[in-house]
Amino acid sequence: MRYATTSLVSSLTGLSTTQLREWTNRRALVPADVPPAGRGSPAKFTWQTVLIICVAATLKTDFRLELQSYRGLFSGLRTSLHQKSFVAIWNKKLVIEPSGDWTLTNIDDDIDSPGDVLVIQLRPHLETLAVGFAISPPPTGSGQLDLFPAQIVDDIRKSDDRTNMESQIAGNRDQRKTA
After folding, report:
1. Crossing angle of helices 47-61 and 71-81, rounded to 10°
2. Which of the two residues, 146 and 92, has the higher pLDDT score?
3. SS3 category, 89
4. Which of 66, 111, 125, 177 has its CA 20 to 30 A from that of 53?
């Protein structure tokens, strides 16, 4: 299991380290997966916990909601997310009802609720986490996951360099024969 430290989570969520410690330690809204071992030791977080922190940050900054009343949401979401894969929630949205009940639904599904609900798209947060945790996002198109992620390969050798390299190799071969 991959863990992120406090400093990485801070950069992924946009929260200051002080705010993150407040939410994860002091107020325990979203506790760390591995609490700090002592003074100067960082807490450790899984991608699921960081996603919940992103949801909390969205509720606080975008909707200006008090997070204490959403502690039950965070706890239930944590239990649910730890049973799901990263790919399984890629095309999901979080629907929160005023009662505190919530559901994860497909991004294209209509919301059938008689009243108002709050909808948080998870994909933008997951895209950020994919980079921070070095997780491959789901494939588009064929459904086949890449065995090895594509990397840029530059062939910087010039013909002159290749000729010099070949002559050096030949020279080394000749030296070994005479030795």
Report:
1. 150
2. 92
3. helix
4. 111
pLDDT digits (tens, 9 = 90+) for 60-82: 999 999 999 999 999 999 999 99
Contact 22, 10 (CB under 8 A): no
Question: Does the pTM exceed 0.85?
Answer: no
* Block residue for tokens 């991004």: 107
Token duo for residue 70 = 């959403």
29 CB contacts (<8 Å, ≥6 apart)? 23, 56, 67, 68, 70, 71, 74
Instruction: Please state, as a whole number, how many other Cβ atoms lie within 10 Å of the Cβ of residue 70.
Output: 20
Question: Residue 57: enclosing H or E segment and its boundaries?
Answer: helix 47-61
SS3 for 90?
A: coil
Tell me the CB-side half-sphere exposure of residue 87, using CA atoms within 13 A. 9
